[in-house]
Design a protein that fits this description.
Elements: H1 2-27, E1 32-36, H2 42-48, E2 57-62, H3 66-73, H4 77-83, H5 88-101, E3 107-113, E4 128-135, E5 140-146, H6 151-170
Parallel strand pairs: 1-2, 1-3
Antiparallel strand pairs: 3-4, 4-5
Length: 171
C-alpha cells in the first residue's frame, strides 16, 4: 500500500515537473532529445503527455541493450567493456550521440541505471542511476544518484531527476 501511495505522489509530481520543464524549454527557445535505458522512455512519455510538446521535444531514444547504445547512439564498445553501461562515460556518450542524431535539439539527457530488483553488485547496487546532460556547443556532464524503492519507484525517481537536470542546464 505504501509503495502505491509513493508512486501515485511521484506520478503527480512527474506530470507537474514535465509541464514546468516544457515551459522552461519554450522560454529558452530550446529543444530536448532523450536517450533512455533503465527508464525505458518514461522521460519522453512524460514530456509528450502534454499537448503541444512537439515544439520543444525533439524525440526520445530507448537504447536498453548495449548493442543499441552502440548502433543508435554511437557509444563505443571500448567504453562499455571498460566502464559498463551504468557509468559516467557511457551516459556522456549517450547524451552526445542523441544530440548527433537530433539535429534540431539544443539539449539532451541520457539515463542508464540498475532499476532492480536484480542486476546489482557491491560496486553498482540496485538503485544506482547515471545521468548525462549535453548542450550543443557546451560541456557534457554526468552525475549519479542512488534511489531507494522498488523498480517502479527507482524509474520514477530517475525520471524526475532527469527533468530537474535539464531544467538546471537551461538556467
Amino acid at each position: 500500500m505504501l509503495s502505491s501511495i509513493l508512486v501515485s505522489e511521484l506520478s503527480a509530481e512527474l506530470i507537474q515537473q514535465s509541464a514546468t520543464l516544457l515551459d522552461a524549454l519554450r522560454r529558452a527557445e530550446a529543444k530536448l532529445v532523450t536517450a533512455e535505458s533503465c527508464t525505458g522512455g518514461l522521460v519522453a512519455a512524460l514530456l509528450t503527455h502534454h499537448a503541444g510538446s512537439s515544439d520543444v521535444t525533439e524525440g526520445g531514444l530507448v537504447t536498453y541493450s548495449n548493442s543499441m547504445k552502440q548502433s543508435v547512439l554511437g557509444v563505443r564498445e571500448e567504453t562499455l567493456r571498460q566502464f559498463g553501461a551504468v557509468s559516467a562515460e557511457t551516459v556522456r556518450e549517450m547524451a552526445s550521440g542523441a544530440l548527433g542524431i537530433a539535429q534540431d535539439a539544443t539539449h539532451s539527457v541520457s539515463i542508464s541505471g540498475i532499476a532492480g530488483p536484480g542486476g546489482g553488485s557491491p560496486e553498482k547496487p540496485v538503485g544506482l542511476v547515471w545521468f548525462g546532460t549535453a548542450m550543443r556547443g557546451g560541456d557534457v556532464l554526468a552525475e549519479a544518484r542512488i534511489f531507494e524503492g522498488d523498480r517502479t519507484e527507482v524509474r520514477s525517481q530517475a525520471a524526475l531527476h532527469a527533468l530537474a537536470l535539464v531544467a538546471q542546464r537551461l538556467a
